[in-house]
Coproporphyrin III ferrochelatase (Ruicaihuangia caeni), 386 residues
Amino acid sequence: MLGATPACAGGDPHITEPVEYDAILLAGFGGPEGQDDVIPFLRNVTRGRGIPDERLEEVATHYRHFGGVSPINEHNRQLKAAIEQELASRGIDLPVLWGNRNWAPYLADTVREARERGFTKLIAIATSAYSSFSSCRQYREDFAMALESTGLLGDGTSPAAVQIDKVRQFFDHPGFVAPFAQGVRAALDELEDQGFADEQVHVLFSTHSIPMTDAARSGPRGHSFGEGGAYAAQHQAVAEVVMELAESDAPWSLVYQSRSGPPEMPWLEPDINDAIEELDAEQTRAVVIVPLGFVSDHMEVMWDLDEEAMQTARDRGFAAVRVPTPGIHPEYVSGLVDLVMERVQGTPVAERPALTPLGPWYDVCRPGCCENVRAGFKPAAAGVAP
Ligand SMILES: CC1=C(CCC(=O)O)c2cc3nc(cc4[nH]c(cc5[nH]c(cc1n2)c(C)c5CCC(=O)O)c(CCC(=O)O)c4C)C(CCC(=O)O)=C3C
Ligand SMILES: [Fe+2]
Protein backbone atom coordinates (compact mmCIF):
# COMPACT_ATOMS: atom_id res chain seq x y z
CA MET A 1 0.00 0.00 0.00
CA LEU A 2 1.65 3.22 -1.10
CA GLY A 3 -1.02 5.68 0.05
CA ALA A 4 0.48 9.08 0.69
CA THR A 5 4.01 8.15 -0.40
CA PRO A 6 3.98 8.75 -4.16
CA ALA A 7 7.03 8.11 -6.27
CA CYS A 8 8.47 11.52 -7.04
CA ALA A 9 11.73 13.17 -8.07
CA GLY A 10 14.85 11.24 -7.13
CA GLY A 11 14.30 7.82 -8.65
CA ASP A 12 12.77 4.81 -7.01
CA PRO A 13 12.05 5.37 -3.33
CA HIS A 14 12.16 1.62 -2.69
CA ILE A 15 15.05 -0.73 -3.39
CA THR A 16 13.71 -4.05 -4.55
CA GLU A 17 16.98 -5.54 -5.78
CA PRO A 18 18.68 -7.80 -3.21
CA VAL A 19 21.79 -6.24 -1.63
CA GLU A 20 24.67 -8.12 -0.04
CA TYR A 21 25.34 -6.18 3.14
CA ASP A 22 28.46 -6.90 5.21
CA ALA A 23 27.04 -5.78 8.55
CA ILE A 24 24.21 -4.05 10.40
CA LEU A 25 24.93 -0.63 11.89
CA LEU A 26 22.82 -0.02 15.00
CA ALA A 27 22.79 3.78 15.37
CA GLY A 28 21.82 5.22 18.74
CA PHE A 29 21.37 8.66 20.26
CA GLY A 30 24.00 8.13 22.98
CA GLY A 31 23.90 9.23 26.60
CA PRO A 32 26.18 10.05 29.54
CA GLU A 33 27.44 7.23 31.76
CA GLY A 34 28.67 9.27 34.74
CA GLN A 35 28.46 12.76 36.28
CA ASP A 36 31.52 14.03 34.35
CA ASP A 37 29.90 13.07 31.04
CA VAL A 38 26.72 15.09 31.54
CA ILE A 39 27.71 18.58 30.36
CA PRO A 40 29.97 17.43 27.48
CA PHE A 41 27.12 15.16 26.32
CA LEU A 42 24.60 18.01 26.43
CA ARG A 43 27.01 20.21 24.45
CA ASN A 44 27.26 17.48 21.80
CA VAL A 45 23.48 17.20 21.55
CA THR A 46 22.85 20.91 21.25
CA ARG A 47 25.87 21.93 19.17
CA GLY A 48 24.91 24.97 17.05
CA ARG A 49 21.21 24.97 18.05
CA GLY A 50 20.74 27.99 20.30
CA ILE A 51 19.30 26.03 23.21
CA PRO A 52 19.46 28.42 26.21
CA ASP A 53 22.01 27.60 28.96
CA GLU A 54 19.24 27.52 31.58
CA ARG A 55 17.59 24.71 29.66
CA LEU A 56 20.89 22.74 29.63
CA GLU A 57 21.31 23.28 33.37
CA GLU A 58 17.77 22.07 33.94
CA VAL A 59 18.21 18.99 31.77
CA ALA A 60 21.55 18.27 33.51
CA THR A 61 19.68 17.94 36.84
CA HIS A 62 17.55 15.14 35.36
CA TYR A 63 20.70 13.17 34.58
CA ARG A 64 22.35 14.12 37.92
CA HIS A 65 19.31 12.70 39.72
CA PHE A 66 20.26 9.29 38.27
CA GLY A 67 24.00 9.55 39.05
CA GLY A 68 24.76 11.20 35.70
CA VAL A 69 23.85 7.98 33.92
CA SER A 70 21.35 7.68 31.10
CA PRO A 71 20.17 4.08 30.65
CA ILE A 72 20.14 4.56 26.87
CA ASN A 73 23.57 3.02 26.14
CA GLU A 74 22.75 -0.03 28.24
CA HIS A 75 19.47 -0.35 26.30
CA ASN A 76 21.40 -0.34 23.05
CA ARG A 77 23.88 -2.94 24.31
CA GLN A 78 20.90 -5.13 25.17
CA LEU A 79 19.20 -4.42 21.85
CA LYS A 80 22.39 -5.31 19.96
CA ALA A 81 22.63 -8.60 21.87
CA ALA A 82 18.95 -9.35 21.21
CA ILE A 83 19.32 -8.65 17.47
CA GLU A 84 22.43 -10.89 17.35
CA GLN A 85 20.48 -13.65 19.04
CA GLU A 86 17.56 -13.28 16.62
CA LEU A 87 19.94 -13.37 13.63
CA ALA A 88 21.67 -16.48 15.01
CA SER A 89 18.35 -18.22 15.59
CA ARG A 90 17.45 -17.61 11.92
CA GLY A 91 20.89 -18.78 10.77
CA ILE A 92 21.75 -15.34 9.34
CA ASP A 93 25.43 -14.45 9.33
CA LEU A 94 25.49 -10.63 9.67
CA PRO A 95 27.64 -8.93 12.31
CA VAL A 96 26.06 -6.05 14.27
CA LEU A 97 28.09 -2.90 14.97
CA TRP A 98 26.87 -0.17 17.32
CA GLY A 99 27.63 3.55 17.19
CA ASN A 100 26.06 6.70 18.65
CA ARG A 101 25.41 10.24 17.43
CA ASN A 102 26.19 12.06 20.68
CA TRP A 103 28.38 9.86 22.90
CA ALA A 104 30.86 7.01 22.81
CA PRO A 105 30.97 4.67 21.04
CA TYR A 106 30.84 7.41 18.37
CA LEU A 107 29.70 6.60 14.83
CA ALA A 108 33.07 7.70 13.40
CA ASP A 109 34.88 5.03 15.44
CA THR A 110 32.31 2.45 14.43
CA VAL A 111 32.66 3.09 10.69
CA ARG A 112 36.46 3.02 11.06
CA GLU A 113 36.12 -0.37 12.75
CA ALA A 114 33.81 -1.51 9.95
CA ARG A 115 36.41 -0.63 7.32
CA GLU A 116 39.19 -2.32 9.31
CA ARG A 117 37.12 -5.47 9.36
CA GLY A 118 36.72 -5.23 5.57
CA PHE A 119 33.06 -4.16 5.54
CA THR A 120 32.02 -1.74 2.79
CA LYS A 121 28.20 -2.06 2.72
CA LEU A 122 26.32 -1.37 5.94
CA ILE A 123 22.59 -1.38 6.55
CA ALA A 124 21.70 0.98 9.38
CA ILE A 125 18.93 0.72 11.94
CA ALA A 126 18.51 4.05 13.74
CA THR A 127 16.75 3.82 17.10
CA SER A 128 14.06 6.17 15.90
CA ALA A 129 10.81 5.29 14.16
CA TYR A 130 9.37 8.51 12.65
CA SER A 131 10.27 11.13 10.04
CA SER A 132 11.72 14.51 11.06
CA PHE A 133 15.08 16.23 11.13
CA SER A 134 15.86 14.97 14.66
CA SER A 135 14.51 11.48 14.17
CA CYS A 136 15.68 10.72 10.63
CA ARG A 137 17.75 13.22 8.71
CA GLN A 138 20.11 14.05 11.57
CA TYR A 139 21.06 10.36 11.77
CA ARG A 140 21.72 10.40 8.00
CA GLU A 141 23.82 13.55 8.25
CA ASP A 142 25.79 12.09 11.13
CA PHE A 143 26.48 8.97 9.03
CA ALA A 144 27.86 11.18 6.26
CA MET A 145 29.90 13.18 8.76
CA ALA A 146 31.32 10.00 10.29
CA LEU A 147 32.35 8.78 6.82
CA GLU A 148 33.81 12.15 5.89
CA SER A 149 35.87 12.52 9.08
CA THR A 150 37.33 9.06 8.59
CA GLY A 151 38.03 9.58 4.88
CA LEU A 152 35.49 6.90 3.92
CA LEU A 153 32.88 9.06 2.19
CA GLY A 154 34.36 8.70 -1.30
CA ASP A 155 34.96 11.69 -3.59
CA GLY A 156 31.67 11.88 -5.49
CA THR A 157 33.04 10.28 -8.67
CA SER A 158 33.95 6.94 -7.15
CA PRO A 159 31.58 4.99 -4.91
CA ALA A 160 31.89 5.75 -1.21
CA ALA A 161 34.57 3.66 0.46
CA VAL A 162 31.92 2.64 2.93
CA GLN A 163 28.26 2.78 1.92
CA ILE A 164 25.61 3.25 4.59
CA ASP A 165 22.00 2.50 3.67
CA LYS A 166 19.21 2.73 6.21
CA VAL A 167 16.08 0.67 6.81
CA ARG A 168 12.81 2.57 6.26
CA GLN A 169 11.27 4.56 9.10
CA PHE A 170 9.38 1.85 10.99
CA PHE A 171 6.61 3.78 12.81
CA ASP A 172 3.92 1.58 11.28
CA HIS A 173 5.80 -1.73 11.23
CA PRO A 174 3.90 -4.38 13.21
CA GLY A 175 6.98 -5.14 15.32
CA PHE A 176 7.10 -1.56 16.59
CA VAL A 177 3.33 -1.16 17.01
CA ALA A 178 2.53 -4.48 18.74
CA PRO A 179 4.31 -3.72 22.06
CA PHE A 180 2.36 -0.45 22.39
CA ALA A 181 -0.96 -2.12 21.57
CA GLN A 182 -0.28 -4.87 24.13
CA GLY A 183 0.80 -2.25 26.67
CA VAL A 184 -2.33 -0.15 26.20
CA ARG A 185 -4.55 -3.24 26.54
CA ALA A 186 -2.72 -4.30 29.73
CA ALA A 187 -2.95 -0.79 31.20
CA LEU A 188 -6.70 -0.60 30.52
CA ASP A 189 -7.18 -4.05 32.09
CA GLU A 190 -5.20 -2.97 35.14
CA LEU A 191 -7.33 0.17 35.52
CA GLU A 192 -10.49 -1.86 35.00
CA ASP A 193 -9.41 -4.11 37.90
CA GLN A 194 -9.17 -0.93 39.96
CA GLY A 195 -12.75 -0.07 39.02
CA PHE A 196 -12.28 2.35 36.09
CA ALA A 197 -14.38 1.80 32.98
CA ASP A 198 -12.78 2.50 29.57
CA GLU A 199 -14.77 5.74 29.12
CA GLN A 200 -13.37 7.09 32.40
CA VAL A 201 -9.84 6.62 31.11
CA HIS A 202 -8.06 9.04 28.76
CA VAL A 203 -5.20 7.60 26.71
CA LEU A 204 -2.37 10.08 26.08
CA PHE A 205 -0.02 9.22 23.23
CA SER A 206 3.13 11.20 23.91
CA THR A 207 6.01 12.03 21.61
CA HIS A 208 8.93 14.45 21.52
CA SER A 209 7.91 17.98 20.62
CA ILE A 210 9.89 19.52 17.75
CA PRO A 211 9.91 23.05 16.33
CA MET A 212 6.91 23.73 14.05
CA THR A 213 9.32 24.63 11.22
CA ASP A 214 10.91 21.15 11.49
CA ALA A 215 7.51 19.50 11.76
CA ALA A 216 6.22 21.23 8.63
CA ARG A 217 9.30 20.05 6.68
CA SER A 218 9.24 16.47 7.94
CA GLY A 219 8.84 13.98 5.12
CA PRO A 220 9.58 14.57 1.44
CA ARG A 221 9.69 18.11 0.08
CA GLY A 222 6.63 19.31 -1.81
CA HIS A 223 4.23 16.88 -0.21
CA SER A 224 1.72 18.12 2.35
CA PHE A 225 0.84 16.04 5.39
CA GLY A 226 -0.87 18.93 7.17
CA GLU A 227 0.42 21.47 9.65
CA GLY A 228 2.52 19.06 11.71
CA GLY A 229 4.04 17.45 8.60
CA ALA A 230 4.76 13.75 8.20
CA TYR A 231 5.95 13.64 11.85
CA ALA A 232 2.56 14.50 13.38
CA ALA A 233 0.62 12.60 10.68
CA GLN A 234 2.60 9.39 11.33
CA HIS A 235 2.04 9.59 15.10
CA GLN A 236 -1.67 10.27 14.61
CA ALA A 237 -2.02 7.29 12.27
CA VAL A 238 -0.08 4.93 14.58
CA ALA A 239 -2.10 6.00 17.63
CA GLU A 240 -5.30 5.14 15.72
CA VAL A 241 -3.93 1.69 14.91
CA VAL A 242 -2.82 1.10 18.51
CA MET A 243 -6.34 1.90 19.78
CA GLU A 244 -7.82 -0.48 17.20
CA LEU A 245 -5.43 -3.30 18.08
CA ALA A 246 -6.02 -2.71 21.80
CA GLU A 247 -9.76 -2.98 21.05
CA SER A 248 -10.50 0.10 23.08
CA ASP A 249 -13.08 2.86 22.68
CA ALA A 250 -11.44 5.00 25.36
CA PRO A 251 -11.00 8.67 24.44
CA TRP A 252 -7.44 9.50 23.43
CA SER A 253 -5.21 12.31 22.21
CA LEU A 254 -1.79 12.90 20.73
CA VAL A 255 0.36 15.13 22.98
CA TYR A 256 3.95 16.36 23.07
CA GLN A 257 6.74 16.48 25.63
CA SER A 258 10.32 17.56 26.34
CA ARG A 259 10.11 20.89 24.55
CA SER A 260 13.28 22.98 24.55
CA GLY A 261 14.42 26.00 22.51
CA PRO A 262 13.55 29.64 23.14
CA PRO A 263 9.98 30.31 24.31
CA GLU A 264 9.17 32.57 21.34
CA MET A 265 9.80 29.71 18.89
CA PRO A 266 6.63 27.66 18.20
CA TRP A 267 6.90 23.90 18.90
CA LEU A 268 4.31 21.16 18.51
CA GLU A 269 1.60 21.33 21.19
CA PRO A 270 -0.17 20.57 23.47
CA ASP A 271 2.41 19.71 26.09
CA ILE A 272 1.42 16.54 27.95
CA ASN A 273 1.24 18.37 31.29
CA ASP A 274 -1.08 21.06 29.90
CA ALA A 275 -3.21 18.36 28.29
CA ILE A 276 -3.57 16.57 31.66
CA GLU A 277 -4.48 19.89 33.32
CA GLU A 278 -7.22 20.42 30.76
CA LEU A 279 -8.90 17.01 31.03
CA ASP A 280 -12.45 17.25 32.34
CA ALA A 281 -12.42 15.72 35.84
CA GLU A 282 -16.17 15.03 35.59
CA GLN A 283 -15.47 12.54 32.84
CA THR A 284 -11.89 11.42 33.37
CA ARG A 285 -10.69 9.50 36.44
CA ALA A 286 -7.53 7.89 35.07
CA VAL A 287 -4.92 8.35 32.35
CA VAL A 288 -2.80 5.91 30.36
CA ILE A 289 0.47 7.44 29.17
CA VAL A 290 1.88 5.88 25.99
CA PRO A 291 5.46 6.90 25.02
CA LEU A 292 4.61 6.41 21.35
CA GLY A 293 7.59 8.39 20.05
CA PHE A 294 10.27 6.39 21.85
CA VAL A 295 11.88 2.98 21.49
CA SER A 296 13.29 2.57 25.01
CA ASP A 297 12.74 3.82 28.58
CA HIS A 298 15.48 6.47 28.42
CA MET A 299 15.70 9.82 30.19
CA GLU A 300 12.89 11.55 28.29
CA VAL A 301 10.63 8.72 29.50
CA MET A 302 12.07 8.27 33.02
CA TRP A 303 12.02 11.98 33.80
CA ASP A 304 9.56 13.84 31.61
CA LEU A 305 6.90 11.11 31.83
CA ASP A 306 7.56 9.03 34.96
CA GLU A 307 8.48 12.00 37.17
CA GLU A 308 6.74 15.05 35.70
CA ALA A 309 3.67 13.87 33.80
CA MET A 310 2.85 11.23 36.44
CA GLN A 311 3.05 13.94 39.11
CA THR A 312 0.74 16.22 37.10
CA ALA A 313 -1.76 13.34 36.87
CA ARG A 314 -1.52 12.57 40.61
CA ASP A 315 -1.97 16.26 41.45
CA ARG A 316 -5.26 16.13 39.59
CA GLY A 317 -6.31 13.02 41.49
CA PHE A 318 -6.13 10.76 38.41
CA ALA A 319 -4.99 7.17 38.55
CA ALA A 320 -2.15 6.84 36.03
CA VAL A 321 -0.35 4.00 34.23
CA ARG A 322 2.63 4.43 31.90
CA VAL A 323 2.93 1.87 29.10
CA PRO A 324 6.40 0.35 28.39
CA THR A 325 8.42 1.28 25.30
CA PRO A 326 9.33 -1.53 22.82
CA GLY A 327 12.77 -2.01 24.46
CA ILE A 328 13.79 -5.58 23.62
CA HIS A 329 10.26 -6.92 23.17
CA PRO A 330 10.65 -10.08 21.00
CA GLU A 331 8.23 -8.80 18.32
CA TYR A 332 10.15 -5.51 18.06
CA VAL A 333 13.53 -7.25 17.81
CA SER A 334 12.18 -9.67 15.24
CA GLY A 335 10.62 -6.75 13.33
CA LEU A 336 13.98 -4.97 13.13
CA VAL A 337 15.59 -8.10 11.69
CA ASP A 338 12.69 -8.34 9.21
CA LEU A 339 13.38 -4.74 8.13
CA VAL A 340 17.01 -5.62 7.43
CA MET A 341 16.07 -8.80 5.58
CA GLU A 342 13.58 -6.85 3.45
CA ARG A 343 16.60 -5.01 2.03
CA VAL A 344 18.91 -8.03 1.88
CA GLN A 345 16.28 -9.97 -0.07
CA GLY A 346 14.82 -7.06 -2.05
CA THR A 347 11.26 -7.75 -0.90
CA PRO A 348 8.61 -6.32 -3.26
CA VAL A 349 6.90 -3.24 -1.79
CA ALA A 350 3.48 -4.94 -1.79
CA GLU A 351 4.84 -7.62 0.55
CA ARG A 352 6.27 -5.21 3.11
CA PRO A 353 4.17 -4.98 6.25
CA ALA A 354 2.82 -1.54 7.16
CA LEU A 355 -0.18 -0.88 9.41
CA THR A 356 -1.05 2.67 8.25
CA PRO A 357 -1.90 4.09 4.81
CA LEU A 358 1.27 6.21 5.04
CA GLY A 359 3.61 3.25 4.68
CA PRO A 360 5.67 1.31 3.86
CA TRP A 361 7.97 4.35 4.10
CA TYR A 362 10.89 5.05 1.72
CA ASP A 363 14.15 3.12 1.69
CA VAL A 364 15.84 6.10 0.05
CA CYS A 365 14.91 9.45 1.62
CA ARG A 366 13.43 11.82 -0.98
CA PRO A 367 15.07 15.10 -2.03
CA GLY A 368 14.80 17.64 0.79
CA CYS A 369 13.37 15.00 3.12
CA CYS A 370 13.18 16.34 6.68
CA GLU A 371 15.34 19.33 5.76
CA ASN A 372 16.36 21.75 8.47
CA VAL A 373 16.70 25.33 7.36
CA ARG A 374 18.28 26.42 10.66
CA ALA A 375 21.19 24.02 10.32
CA GLY A 376 21.58 24.45 6.56
CA PHE A 377 22.14 21.67 4.05
CA LYS A 378 24.72 19.05 4.90
CA PRO A 379 25.57 15.84 3.08
CA ALA A 380 23.44 12.93 4.22
CA ALA A 381 23.75 9.19 3.64
CA ALA A 382 20.87 6.90 2.58
CA GLY A 383 18.96 9.42 0.53
CA VAL A 384 18.77 11.49 -2.62
CA ALA A 385 20.67 14.79 -2.52
CA PRO A 386 20.25 17.44 -1.32
C1 LIG B 1 12.37 13.85 17.77
C2 LIG B 1 13.35 13.62 18.89
C3 LIG B 1 13.69 12.40 19.47
C4 LIG B 1 13.21 11.03 19.08
C5 LIG B 1 14.03 10.46 17.98
C6 LIG B 1 15.47 10.07 18.32
O1 LIG B 1 15.65 9.15 19.13
O2 LIG B 1 16.39 10.66 17.77
C7 LIG B 1 14.67 12.67 20.47
C8 LIG B 1 15.26 11.69 21.27
C9 LIG B 1 16.10 11.90 22.35
N1 LIG B 1 16.49 13.12 22.87
C10 LIG B 1 17.34 12.86 23.91
C11 LIG B 1 17.97 13.86 24.68
C12 LIG B 1 17.97 15.20 24.36
N2 LIG B 1 17.32 15.81 23.33
C13 LIG B 1 17.58 17.18 23.34
C14 LIG B 1 17.13 18.14 22.45
C15 LIG B 1 16.23 17.94 21.40
N3 LIG B 1 15.65 16.74 21.05
C16 LIG B 1 14.81 16.97 19.95
C17 LIG B 1 14.04 16.00 19.29
C18 LIG B 1 14.11 14.64 19.57
N4 LIG B 1 14.90 14.03 20.53
C19 LIG B 1 14.90 18.36 19.60
C20 LIG B 1 14.17 19.00 18.46
C21 LIG B 1 15.78 18.96 20.51
C22 LIG B 1 16.22 20.39 20.52
C23 LIG B 1 17.64 20.53 20.04
C24 LIG B 1 17.83 20.19 18.60
O3 LIG B 1 17.15 20.76 17.72
O4 LIG B 1 18.71 19.37 18.29
C25 LIG B 1 18.49 17.42 24.42
C26 LIG B 1 19.08 18.75 24.77
C27 LIG B 1 18.45 19.37 25.94
C28 LIG B 1 16.98 19.60 25.76
O5 LIG B 1 16.66 20.57 25.08
O6 LIG B 1 16.20 18.79 26.25
C29 LIG B 1 18.73 16.19 25.06
C30 LIG B 1 19.58 15.93 26.27
C31 LIG B 1 17.52 11.45 24.06
C32 LIG B 1 18.42 10.78 25.06
C33 LIG B 1 17.71 10.45 26.33
C34 LIG B 1 18.68 9.79 27.33
O7 LIG B 1 19.77 10.33 27.57
O8 LIG B 1 18.33 8.73 27.87
C35 LIG B 1 16.75 10.85 23.10
C36 LIG B 1 16.58 9.40 22.82
FE1 LIG C 1 13.81 11.38 6.31
